[in-house]
Amino acid sequence: KDTLTIAIDGPAAAGKSTVAKMVAKELACIYIDTGAMYRALTLQAMNHSVDVNDEEALTALLLKTTIELKQTIEGQKVFIDNQDVTGAIRSLEVTNTVSYVAKHPKIRSEMVNRQQALAAKRDVVMDGRDIGTHVLPDAEVKIFLVATVEERAKRRHEENIKNGIASDLAELKKEIEQRDQIDSKREASPLVKAEDALEIDTTSLTINEVAQQILEQAKKIK
Ligand code: C5P
Questions:
Q1: Which of 5, 11, 101, 132 has the smallest C-beta neighbourhood within 10 Å, fewest atoms?
Q2: 11 is in an annotated binding site
């Protein structure tokens, strides 16, 4: 095996994507945001009035939906059947519904197949909930990022304010807790640290410090 794969998992709003992007840039790898794929399917279900609790209908919808993650000069963009949904998949409604979509074993197995195909024969940094445990169990570097829910809600809140998005800290904390609860308690590949993953508590670390720690792990490999 001559490729480098880095798996980054952890609960909602732990800073996974920010750190993963930095690490990918530094190592000239592709960054794959698996959460964006579940979000894209959620948006597609909402737009096609498919009940997110109906695993069969959702699976049929997924099988006829192309989800693409494209690197552009403006950053990574997400497309559903060639339509740019980069902004739309971050809506509050998608965020608060996605964990119901991600519970279904048939949805997960199709997503995992697609994610493994994206990672085949390439250097990748992939983030999600089950990357180290299911998607890339042989990843050379496995990271599990955690932070207190207060800190995660605070970071999201500050990010919203910076982006001019209305934000309620207490509400955010509730939503994050709710999503973690569903993601951790589901039967199909729940959010859990892989046995061989390095856990990093980012509560009192900067993004840069976290990225450095991951890069150090990667250096030990190459
Ligand atoms: O990473 P992000 O917060 O965008 O993920 C959105 C949701 O997608 C998660 O809360 C989880 O329900 C689901 N997800 C998952 N497995 C992954 C990535 C995301 O179940 N590998």
A1: 11
A2: yes
Ligand 1 and 129: CB distance under 6 A: yes
pLDDT, one tens digit for every residue, the chain (222 residues): 679 999 999 999 999 999 999 999 999 999 999 999 999 999 999 999 999 999 999 999 999 999 999 988 888 999 999 999 999 999 999 999 999 999 999 999 999 999 999 999 999 999 999 999 999 999 999 999 999 999 999 999 998 999 898 899 999 999 999 999 999 999 999 999 999 999 999 999 999 999 999 999 999 986
Closest residue by Cα to atom 10, ligand 1, is: 99
105 is in an annotated binding site: no
Distance of CA 37 to the CA centre of its chain: 8
Q: Which atom of ligand 1 is nearest to the CA of 34?
A: 18
C-alpha 191 – ligand 1 centre gap (Å): 9
Q: Hey, which bits of 3-120 come out as E strands?
A: 5-9, 30-33, 67-72, 75-80, 83-84
Q: Give the Å distance between the CA of 212 and the centre of ligand 1.
A: 24
Q: What is the pTM of this model?
A: 0.96
Q: Where are the beta strands (DSSP E) in 57-159?
A: 67-72, 75-80, 83-84, 124-128, 141-146
